[in-house]
Amino acid sequence: MKISKQHIKSLLNGDLFRTEAIRKQYPLLGLVAVLTMVYILADYHAIDQQKQIIQMRRQINESRFEYLSIYTELVRVSRQTVVIEQLEEKGSSLEMNMRPLIEIDNPSHE
Fold first, then answer.
1. Is residue 63 situated within a structural domain?
2. Reduced to 3 states, what is the DSSP secondary structure of residue 21?
3. Which range of residues forms the domain containing residue 80?
4. Whole-angstrom distance, CA of residue 84 vs CA of residue 93
5. 69 lies in some domain
6. How many domains does the chain have?
7. Rounded to an integer, what distance in angstroms lies between the CA atom of residue 52 and that of residue 59?
8. Tens digits of pLDDT across the chain (110 residues)
9. 86 found inside a domain
């Protein structure tokens, strides 16, 4: 198949797009162009969503580690021995209660 200079010249001039057969396909070509743009925009949107998801996962991990460190410090500070030491350092006259606050009576063992 030999391509002549005439065919190349008509292709570059746009004569191909002026033919009746191609003009009938303009709506279809327009639809394909619109669908291509929608596809590209959807791809960009998906990439942005993935970036946001990655950023939120990082924030969740940072918050989780912050929670664990605060919780660990709270548990350490709220231990009975630490509370007693802090009271003694401040010179408080409070003493540890050796009796239970509530006594439970079991009537079946009387």
1. yes
2. helix
3. 13-91
4. 11
5. yes
6. 1
7. 11
8. 677 787 778 777 777 777 787 888 889 999 999 999 999 999 999 999 999 999 999 999 999 999 999 999 999 888 888 888 888 888 887 777 777 777 777 777 65
9. yes
